[in-house]
Amino acid sequence: MSLLENKVAVVSGAGSGIGRSIAITYAQEGARVVVSDINEEHANETVKLIQENGGEAFAVKSDASKAEENKSLVEAVVAKYGRLDIACNNAGIGGPAKLTGDYEPEEWDRVIALNLNGVFYACKYQLQQMEKNGGGSIINIASIHGQVAAPNSPAYTASKHAVVGLTKNIAAEYAQKNIRCNAVGPGYIETPLLSANLSQEMQDAIAAKSPINRLGKVQEIADLVAFLSSDKSTFTTGSYIIADGGYTAI
Asked: Rounded to whole angstroms, what are the CA distances from 138 to 100, 150, 152, 174?
């Protein structure tokens, strides 16, 4: 049997990169997947990829930074499939690269609105539904910068540290309700966004900072998330699991 057979899952920011890989992997493991992204075209592309490989999915355009849209997303999942077993809150942005003293309030607010407030809103409505189900698993995508600094990215670093704290709080509150909540901290991952914004020389320099001496692959994150979403990890909750090729180990 597949890891997620007969489960219903939702993934935010699933139109590209890590989120797309997670959604596809969920489907490969037997889940029915709701693909959420603010970019409807990209979300539909992910759904097409899933369906072409025999999986079941549909797309919902949603702004993860808005409370009402998170509520509506959960309602759409339940209207289609009757329940919600798994949620991966992946949507996020990096924000501009500036020293803390140079950050504009509106720039700070934009990052916090999606990376932190959006995760809270998502968890709030997911938890309400999972209580009705009698259980579930939530995976919040944080970052290695939920543990270490990212100079010139104060809002990103603060938001990811906060996501780790929120994850632990949810885990403590809901453990006896059969709802688990864990965070994953990817290191530097090879994605189209990274390739588009960094030269090969810069990518090589980042890769050299980890003992493995390469960038991570989206599938390596997706496989970890699938495990944490499954019944293979039923004693794991409140964890913050880093996948960074050893970047934070030295």
From this structure: 31, 25, 30, 11
